[in-house]
Amino acid sequence: MRFDELVYAVVRQIPRGRVASYGQVALLCGNPRASRAVGWALRRNPAPGEEIPCHRVVNREGRLAPAFVFGGPDAQRSLLEAEGVAVDDEGFVDMERYAWYGPTEPPGR
């Protein structure tokens, strides 16, 4: 399977109302040093939205993409807020509250 396809498979698993970092997605794809490649794969996302919800991927600090590819810089904020994810005035998500760590994460996290 191509790396892009691995990225899309992982991103499809991020639950509504949660986010994952580029590095977390890379780790779950088996290549923890490939966070930039995750970003490039998401730029080529063939099905943004509910099918491959790339808006749920943020940087390791919880910062939104400065120029979200699919709809401009405010689109990612709007999509996350519509799912109940709070984004502060500086464009950050509280990773302690909203981070998703993978499909083996304990229920209720």
The CATH topology annotation reads as Arc Repressor Mutant, subunit A
Q: Which value, in Å, is the CA radius of gyration?
A: 13 Å
Number of domains: 1
CATH architecture label name:
Orthogonal Bundle
The sequence of SSEs as H and E is HEHHEHH
- What's the mean pLDDT score? 92
**Head-to-tail CA distance between termini:** 30 Å
- Helix-residue proportion: 25-40%
User: What's the arrangement of strands in the largest beta sheet?
Assistant: 1-2
Number of strands: 2
Major sheet description = 2 strands, parallel
- The CATH superfamily is identified as Winged helix-like DNA-binding domain superfamily/Winged helix DNA-binding domain
Q: What is the highest CATH level, the class? A: Mainly Alpha
- The DSSP helix count reads 5
In percent terms, what proportion of residues is strand?
Answer: under 5%
Low-pLDDT sequence parts: none
What shape does the CA trace take?
globular
Structural class: mainly alpha
Explained architecture:
The protein is 38% helix and 4% strand. With 109 residues, the chain is mainly alpha-helical. The protein has a single domain, classed as Winged helix-like DNA-binding domain superfamily/Winged helix DNA-binding domain (Arc Repressor Mutant, subunit A, Orthogonal Bundle). The N and C termini lie far apart (30 Å).
